[in-house]
Amino acid sequence: MKPYVGWWDRLFGKRVHIQITRSDGSPALVEVTRAWLDKAVSEGAMSPEPDSAAHAAAQSQPRDGPASGAAIEDLCKSIGRVLEVDRALIRRGVGTQSQRPLEFWLCIAPQVLFHDMLVNQEAATFPVPLLQQMSTADAEKCASVTQAYCALLLHRMLTNSVQFREQMGIAPDQIEELFATTLRGDASDEFRRYLALSSVPHGMPDAVDPRDWPLKWFWDIADILIPDEDAQVEALGEWNDNIIARLDFVSREMRLVGPLREHAVTYVRTGTVGSADS
User: Fold this and answer.
1) Which residues make beta-bridge pairs with 16?
2) Is the pTM of this model over 0.90?
3) Which of residues 39 and 82 earns the better pLDDT score?
4) DSSP 3-state assignment of 29?
5) Spatial distance between the Cα atoms of 119 and 256, rounded to a whole number of angstroms
């Protein structure tokens, strides 16, 4: 049911690139394979240009499921309250210089990520019906997993970019120290699990391709909100079987992380931040 481990490697054939447009209007290339692309087009799952009218009609269709709009809103508010508690802990337990980058990536970014990837899906060609079909609403676990994932994103960006480390004013080991001393509990456990998984060499069992991490996070959230495997298959099976839908999800996260980085720099410098897509 969860094909996030190695599904890129199972796409055989010559690799090609699909051009997407980021939220700021700049172009970006997403790498796929020629065989995968040909198969997707031949099956009608993808056309060179999406049918905008059909997409708009699909977006406007009512969604059946046990979760109402009010229930989804309550879940998001509860996640926000959990993260605000952690924000207060960071302010009390971390030095002034490190507060803003850690506040942003561990308390603000998780709310943006959860909302823009799972709630507000106007930019999605293939919206995922997870929240509409959720059978439980465990805000604390959703907050912990999403916070841990954002912490991993920050850890990787700090590790890979000297310039970004200078902009944030923190080092990767400060994130690890934070979860060891200040943010304990589920979020700490999830972060250590994610960090360990990210260190598994490519090709080894349990290794996660870097391009698959958005899907890894998604299925961890799905396991929280739809814990019954049969119900999960019924709710998400059709979406999951569409490889274009999974690529759409990954590419949406790519388009989101870029603006988040820019807003993080602004927040560290000024203490204020706009929306991720502004």
Assistant:
1) 32
2) no
3) 82
4) strand
5) 14
170 Rama class: left (phi>0) / alpha (psi -120 to 50) / beta: beta
**Total number of residues shown for the chain:** 278
Which residue is listed with tokens 């200078």?
166
User: Is the backbone of residue 169 left (phi > 0), alpha (psi -120 to 50) or beta?
Assistant: left
Check whether 253 has a pLDDT greater than 70: yes
Exposed, middle or buried by CB within 10 Å (0-12, 13-18, 19+), for 226?
buried
Residues 6+ apart with CB under 8 A from 237: 1
Structure tokens at 258: 């870029």
What spatial distance separates the first Cα and last Cα of the chain, rounded to whole Å?
A: 35
Helices (H), the chain: 34-42, 52-60, 69-93, 96-103, 109-114, 139-160, 162-168, 172-181, 186-198, 213-225, 229-241, 243-270
Residue 277 is given by DSSP the state T
Q: Any idea which residue has 């991993």 for tokens?
A: 152
Query: What's the rounded mean pLDDT across residues 148-175?
Result: 96
DSSP 8-state class, residue 120: -
Given pLDDT bands bounded at 50, 70 and 90, which one contains residue 274? low
d(CA 140, CA 161): 31
Please choose, from the candidates 82, 81, 65, the residue with its C-alpha nearest in 3D space to the C-alpha of residue 136.
Answer: 65
Does pLDDT of 17 surpass 50? Answer: no
Determine which helix (DSSP H) or strand (DSSP E) holds 6, and give its type and residue range: none
Pair of tokens at residue 155? 């850890």
Could you tell me if 174 and 98 are in contact, meaning their C-beta atoms sit under 8 angstroms apart?
yes
Tell me how many degrees the CA angle 242-239-40 measures, rounded to the nearest 5.
15
